[in-house]
Amino acid sequence: MSGERDRPEDGDGNAFSKAMKGVKPLAGRDKRQPPARMPPARPDAPPEEPVRFEVTRAGERVEGRAPGIDRKHLRRLRAGDIRVEVRVDLHGLHGPEAREAVREALIGAAEAGQRCALVIHGRGHRSESGPVLKQGLLRWLAEPPLGARVMAFASATPADGGTGATYVLLRRGVVRNTG
Q1: Is there a domain that residue 81 lies in?
Q2: What is the pTM for the complete model shown?
Q3: Residue 146 contacts by C-beta under 8 Å, 6 or more apart in sequence?
Q4: Does residue 146 lie in a domain region?
Q5: What are phi and psi of 73, to 5 degrees?
Q6: 172 pLDDT band (50/70/90 cuts)?
Q7: CA distances from residue 157 to 56, 117, 162 in whole angstroms, order as listed
Q8: Band (162; pLDDT cuts 50, 70, 90)
Q9: Quick one: how far is CA 78 from the chain centroid?
Q10: Which end of the chain has fewer CB atoms at under 10 Å, N or C?
């Protein structure tokens, strides 16, 4: 019976054989290549930890910079001198959805080579527990994988929303890692 399986004589098997008659494989493509594999995670590799930004607060205004980042970047950001390339409006979103929106937008911006984002979170005056999204944003910016991409952040100028929005300065050339 096994011989019958090896020789299809009807239907698709025969039609396929006829269609392929005279076809030659491309040079160097006659062997199957296994799919590329990601190297396994090293069990001894430390897990990514949140970045510890140097944070300064003055009333409702907040700003921070990652370790090793020159203060001039923060000054330019605070002054609104860096062109905003991405806007993320969190109005109407709750914690988990807002966190994911920020994460997706900033990772996408960094991968596209964009440097400055404006995250509009509101001032939190309508929330019984205060500025939930604004405080959440400070945590989210430090968490992996965003922490490695963020150089600095600062409350926006009044023209861009004041303390109800935050500028985020992204690093150049950060390797993709969506964690």
Answers
A1: yes
A2: 0.70
A3: 102, 103, 106, 107, 140
A4: yes
A5: -65, -45
A6: confident
A7: 16, 13, 5
A8: very high
A9: 23
A10: N
In a domain, 70, yes or no: yes
**What's the one-letter identity of residue 152?**
A
What is the extent of the structural domain holding 135?
64-170
Structure token pair of residue 12:
């698709």
The rounded percent of the chain whose pLDDT value lies above 70 is 72
Decide: 66 and 53 in contact? Cβ < 8 Å: yes
Q: Are 121 and 93 in contact (CB under 8 A)?
A: no
Under a CB-based contact definition with an 8 Å cutoff, are residues 103 and 148 in contact?
Answer: no
The CATH number of whichever domain residue 145 belongs to comes to: 3.30.1370.110
Determine the residue type at 7.
R
Residue with tokens 């076809």: 23
Peptide linkage before 145 cis (omega within 30 of 0): yes
Count CB-CB contacts under 10 A for residue 75: 13
- For 125-136, how does the pLDDT look when each residue is reduced to its tens digit (9 = 90+)? 666 666 688 889
Domain count for the chain, please give it. 1
Please state whether beta strands 116-120 and 86-89 pair in parallel, antiparallel, or not at all (unpaired).
parallel
User: Does 89 score more than 70 pLDDT?
Assistant: yes
